[in-house]
Design a protein that fits this description.
Strand 15 and strand 16 form a beta hairpin. The chain is mainly β. It is built from no helices and 19 strands.
């Protein structure tokens, strides 16, 4: 069964999902909002992390022993203006975000990982998942079917609009779920989901977890 969580824009990091909640087994999701004078520091611990800038521009510093990287991330004033970009950060690594614009808003997704990989900072799109990472990111592909485990963040221009998704699991009847501005859709494993209606101009960010060979 799908679950919907609503994001209210708040300074700092807003947690929206952790493993074990709303049918999700492996995904963490939240949104970070910073102003120009603030910074954010975190450790990936036993997870890989992907950062997807929604608004603004920042410097990203990644550092852990020999695995260090830095670069510029983000360029758009709103999610409706240009193609997105992303940074992928491996497990057991620190990272720091330094805003370069008045407002920065970043979607952050994590999943447990034991794969060794180099940090990858892509300042421009399209977003592609590097080798040895499990998080797959797609923007604005509303025509595709999704089979969990995944999360989808939805934003409407001028905060006006709605969307309807249809989902089903083996042996269960189809269910309709309704989405509005700043809603996070949580898709559990083995659940097939597709969007069947949309009113308004929609931005959609979908993040799914792929299984890599051992």
């Amino acid at each position: 069964m799908l679950s919907v969580k609503h994001y209210t824009s708040t300074e700092g990091y807003t947690y929206l999902l952790e493993p074990g909640e709303s049918g999700s087994q492996n995904l963490h999701f939240g949104i970070l909002k910073l102003h120009a004078e603030s910074t954010y520091f975190d450790h990936t611990e036993a997870c890989e992390v992907v950062l997807i800038p929604l608004i603004g521009r920042c410097t990203l510093l990644v550092g852990h022993s020999g695995n260090k990287a830095n670069g510029i991330l983000g360029a758009r004033e709103t999610v409706f203006e240009s193609e997105g970009c992303a940074a992928f950060i491996p497990h057991h690594t620190t990272y720091e975000i330094l805003p370069q614009s008045q407002n920065v808003e970043i979607a952050i997704c994590r999943t447990p990982s034991h794969f060794d990989a180099a940090a990858v900072i892509n300042p421009t799109g399209p977003i592609e998942t590097p080798p040895n990472y499990q998080l797959h990111i797609v923007e604005n592909d509303t025509a595709s079917e999704w089979i969990g485990e995944a999360v989808g963040f939805h934003r409407f221009r001028n905060e006006v609009g709605s969307a309807t998704v249809l989902s089903d699991q083996t042996g269960e009847k189809q269910m309709r779920t309704y989405l509005h501005h700043n809603d996070l859709l949580v898709i559990p494993e083995k659940t097939r989901t597709r969007m069947v209606a949309c009113q308004g101009e929609l931005y959609q960010l979908m993040i799914s977890r792929i299984t890599l060979p051992q």
